[in-house]
Amino acid sequence: MIDQIYIEEALLNHPRARAIMRQFPDATVTECKRYGEIFNRRAQNFRLQKIRPALILAEKYANHVLPSPPEYAIGGEQNYYFSHMLNCIYDCRYCFLQGMYRSAHYVVFVNYEDFFQAIIEKVRAAGDASAHFFSGYDCDSLALDPVTDFVKEFLPVFRNHPQALLELRTKSTQIRSLLAREPMPNCIIAYSFTPAEIAAAIEHKTPPVSKRLQALQRLQAHGWHIGLRFDPLIYQEGVMEQYDRLFAQVFECIDTTLLHSVSLGSFRLPKSFYKALARLYPEEVLFASPLAETIDGMVTYRENIRDPLLSFCKHSLLEYIPESKLFCCEPEL
Question: In the Cβ-directed half-sphere of 1, how many Cα atoms lie within 13 Å?
Fold first, then answer.
């Protein structure tokens, strides 16, 4: 899976870095001063690197926990995200990471303890306010968990601070670590879905919808609370019928008593990210669909496409869940 590892010189004897490297005994290891020498190089081809990404082991010095975007919320008064990893092993054509980063290599920040401290400080500062923390903003939370031990390392922080809530957003079926421990009421495993027809076309390397649902069922059977993320909504011919079938498939499988929340949002990208993605994949049908720039610099579907799709999905979901569990990642419908 990994045949090239870059590691910052200061981390050569770091126990976590060495444990990760031992999992790839045949990989070529190259030292560097800082990960940016590799990750931020000019004239890199994200599309070519995506075929065979390298692994970069690095230390994050600052900004371990950041305020999340306003729409990235599920009811918390204070919302933050943190990224122990940059980039994703999957290859979803709509993913903003491909427009944001020059490199497709995976960066794993091994100084977890600094993340722990930053999370604890935010929890304490929040006092009685509800503080929510999101993992999976710059990566998939679980896809590389067997390599990084992310679940094993980070969950005890939130077990010791039950007033804070953690969301692990994922499309992955790597759930063994979660099934090996007692569920936590303040941890949500949030699965992202698009209809099977769309997933097969543009969510490359991801587990199919059926496999994600199987993982979801196993997690719920073990007692974990789950979330459903229908974001972004992707438009194509016949899409409303496709989403209607998806919702029926999902809610036939899950136990709604363990459902924490459902979120919904249209396809949207900053204009610069959209242009970068369109250059990477000029043949991609997704970028030839009815998109237009909005007044705030985001590229999304035209209003006559976006609003009916959002409205349809919202009303369809409310047939299965109370409105209190539905969060729309939009200013308004």
Answer: 12
How is residue 100 written in tokens? Answer: 């944001």
- What is the C-alpha separation between 333 and 288, in angstroms, rounded? 24
What is the spatial order of strands in the sheet that 291-293 belongs to?
A: 268-270, 298-301, 291-293
- At 152, list the tokens: 């094993």
Q: Are 15 and 111 in contact (CB under 8 A)?
A: no
State pTM to two decimals: 0.94
Cα-Cα-Cα-Cα torsion 101, 58, 134, 211, nearest 10 degrees, comes to 80
Query: CA nearest 193: which of 162, 217, 172?
Result: 172
Residue 321 tokens read as 């869940």
Q: For residue 119, give both structure tokens.
A: 């999370």
Tens of pLDDT, residues 236-280: 999 999 999 999 999 999 999 999 999 999 988 888 888 888 888
End-to-end CA, the chain: 43
As given in the structure block, the two tokens for residue 235 are: 């438009």
